[in-house]
Amino acid sequence: MEQRRIFEQVFTTESAIAAFVFLVVLCALAYSLIRRRARAGATPSPHAERQRLETVYVVVLVGIAAFLVVYTASANDREHPGGESHAAGRGVEAAHPVTVDVTAFQWCWKFSHPAPGPSRAGEATTTANCRDGRLPTLVVPTGRTVRLKITSQDVIHSLWVPALRYKMDAFPDHTNSFTLKIDKEGKWIGRCAEFCGNRHHSMDFWLKAVSPDEYEEWVQQHQGAAPTPEAST
What we know:
Layout: H1 2-38, H2 51-79, H3 83-90, H4 92-95, E1 98-105, E2 108-114, E3 123-127, E4 137-141, E5 146-152, E6 157-161, E7 166-170, E8 176-180, E9 186-192, E10 204-210, H5 212-222
Parallel strand pairs: 1-5, 4-10
Antiparallel strand pairs: 1-2, 2-3, 5-8, 6-7, 6-9, 9-10
Helix pairs in contact: 1-2
């Protein structure tokens, strides 16, 4: 998946940089300790400052920080493309993504899918109580841009799909959104990543990716039906 690939690329690069900086600092500290120990009794250095060394140190740190900011912002832009220019570059499908309204509540989820077509009338809704293995399923089509609009009915929650590296907070009286695109069919567990009360641990759901034709058929079958207390798969 593109999202996971970008995440792992950024994580690997920034971890490598962090490890390199840590080793440099560790080596400098070890050198200073060994050098001072070998010269026990030496008088303090008469130099109050090391301007060249300090300048190089500051320039290197600023350079690393600037690189991390630009690199992370660029990766974030590739991971969550948005705006008219991005949409125009990817065609009509990206300009009009599949939209799913996600509502988190204590302690489960509700997923509402507007019906396909220009009218977008009616919704296919799935929900559950997240008890006794009854989990709701978020169904999305493969190969298409999907926009999740996430809010909360009560307290702060967080939608998280560990295997695909998707995560977004859900706030009451506010809507967050992000786009995803899954290139193969499959089913992955999702969780709430924000402690939200007694049954936070059971607040799971399924993310299921199906073919576009199967998705449209699924929406039509569930359009206008009352939300089922069971998981829809």
